[in-house]
From TrEMBL:
<protein>
    <submittedName>
        <fullName>Uncharacterized protein</fullName>
    </submittedName>
</protein>
<dbReference type="GO" id="GO:0016811">
    <property type="term" value="F:hydrolase activity, acting on carbon-nitrogen (but not peptide) bonds, in linear amides"/>
</dbReference>
<dbReference type="InterPro" id="IPR029062">
    <property type="entry name" value="Class_I_gatase-like"/>
</dbReference>
<dbReference type="InterPro" id="IPR011697">
    <property type="entry name" value="Peptidase_C26"/>
</dbReference>
<dbReference type="InterPro" id="IPR044668">
    <property type="entry name" value="PuuD-like"/>
</dbReference>
<dbReference type="GO" id="GO:0005829">
    <property type="term" value="C:cytosol"/>
</dbReference>
<dbReference type="Pfam" id="PF07722">
    <property type="entry name" value="Peptidase_C26"/>
</dbReference>
């Protein structure tokens, strides 16, 4: 595995869609850790896209995307690819009885997850449109084929009608192997060259699936076949050059699970890890190409998205921290109602000093607006503190004065304020009543005037006055 990546830069992002299962009567999303270990080990960051309703509509929020790895999951909805073989011989199509038998035999895999289908097909098509590196393992290879117009066997055992190969073994998930024939001149042949059989280019692989590629999409070339003729690996020859950021590939078998017995982390063949190594190599190159393209359209000195932040010297870093604390305190005061310690009040001055010293700097309209907002927060916080001090002082003085009063004096004072409150309430009620009466009279006058203005006599009088004036 590669050495630790250089953490001084932002690492490329590889999206991986989770799979949903039920644990303790609740849905749980998960991704196989083998995949995550390999992605991290070769220098990329796995970003898990949760299989949650609605995620397919917000894939733009996961940008930038430098690579996509799709792996295990349920069967793909047949309606997404059946039309691709609508004109083909339907003799191999499964009967309702056979479909029911498949569902009983593969209950966890034969269920359809429409949300996962939608998320993964959209990601696959985005990769194909923008040449984003894509690696599909097992279901991920089937998604890739369907996204390009290919079709699938709904059940290999029934539709191929061959018992020559066992593609799934529920009793020995990791240990199960079956042979494949690797084609010369393909990436797979290059990765496993030292371990292929000299007679037929054979290789023993792990697999766990009951579906597979029926008709391979036109843009792809096969890399390996099982003895029953099932495609076990394919790629796009026009989109394969890891050093240039190009990688579009699907593997039906599981190279990540091909480990030696006894819980060992050692692979059956060195070529098993090459799929992930070359994939991440393409992901890194793709990110570098994207940054280079963006740099050509960014003003000099601007910071590119995903680029490392420039380092500050100790003095500048100290000032940055002080300013950041000042604005943070202002925010906390606003949310908490202005309660701060005396020592914290001095820290507020750093924000004001920063705004004053940068008033003449060359700022954009948006930056200037943002700074004014931040300054207003600091100033309002300071003003609020001063008002609290004044009110606090008055309250303390009142308490001290009343503490020296006798019980009778305090009772008289309370009675006085109660009487004043009652008088105030009565006067306010009278004023409100007078206002309401005046408003009612005004409305009545307006209605009377309106009725007069619309009467025939008033209309005739208005007309005569107009004639006389002329």
């Amino acid at each position: 595995m590669a050495s630790s990546p250089d953490l001084s830069r932002v690492l490329p992002r590889v999206l991986i869609v989770s799979r949903r299962t039920v644990r303790k009567n609740k849905f749980v999303d998960f991704v196989g850790e083998y995949h995550l270990d390999l992605i991290v080990g070769y220098g990329a960051v796995p970003v898990i896209v949760p299989r949650v309703a609605g995620v397919h509509t917000m894939l733009d929020s996961f940008e930038p995307i430098h690579g996509v790895l799709l792996c295990e999951g349920e069967d793909i909805d047949p309606s997404l690819y059946e039309s691709a073989d609508a004109d083909a011989d339907a003799a191999g199509a499964l009967s309702p009885e056979q479909l029911e038998a498949v569902r009983r035999l593969h209950p966890s895999d034969a269920a359809i997850d429409h949300e996962k289908d939608s998320i993964e097909l959209r990601l696959a098509r985005r990769c194909l449109e923008r040449n984003i590196p894509y690696l599909g393992i097992c279901r991920g290879s089937q998604v890739l084929n369907v996204a390009c117009g290919g079709s699938l066997y709904q059940d290999v055992e029934h539709e191929l009608g061959s018992a020559a190969v066992r593609h799934i073994n529920y009793d020995d998930y990791d240990g199960h192997r079956h042979p494949v024939r690797v084609l010369p001149g393909t990436p797979l042949h290059e990765w496993f060259a030292d371990d292929l059989s000299a007679d037929d280019g054979g290789l023993m692989v792990n697999s766990y699936h009951h579906q597979g590629v029926r008709r391979l999409a036109q843009r792809f070339a096969p890399m390996a076949f099982a003895p029953d003729g099932l495609v076990e690996g394919f790629y796009d020859p026009d989109a394969y050059s890891p050093a240039e950021g190009k990688f579009i590939m699907g593997l039906q078998f599981h190279p990540e699970r091909m480990r030696k017995p006894g819980g060992s982390d050692e692979f059956d063949y060195p070529g098993c890890a090459r799929a992930y190594q070359e994939f991440v190599r393409a992901v890194v190159a793709y990110q570098e190409k994207q940054l280079a393209a963006a740099a050509a359209h960014v003003p000099r000195g601007a910071l590119l998205p995903g680029s490392p932040k420039p380092l500050l010297n100790k003095e500048m870093e100290k000032r940055r921290r002080a300013i950041s604390r000042s604005f943070s305190l202002a925010k906390d005061m606003y949310l908490s109602g202005g309660h701060t310690k005396p020592a914290e009040q001095r820290d507020l001055e750093a924000g004001a000093e920063f705004l004053e010293s940068n008033a003449a700097a060359s700022l954009s309209v948006q930056q200037e607006k943002r700074l004014k907002q931040m300054g207003a927060t600091v100033r309002n916080a300071s003003g609020y503190l001063n008002s609290l001090k004044v009110n606090g002082g008055r309250e303390a003085a009142a308490r001290a004065l009343m503490a020296e009063m006798t019980v009778d004096q305090l009772a008289d004072l309370a009675s006085f304020y109660q009487t004043m409150g009652k008088i105030c309430s009565e006067v306010l009620d009278r004023k409100l009543q007078a206002f309401a009466t005046a408003e009612t009279e005004l409305v009545q006058i307006c209605r009377t005037e309106l009725d007069l203005s619309s009467s025939p006599e008033l209309t005739w009088m208005t007309s005569r006055r107009g004639d006389a004036a002329n």
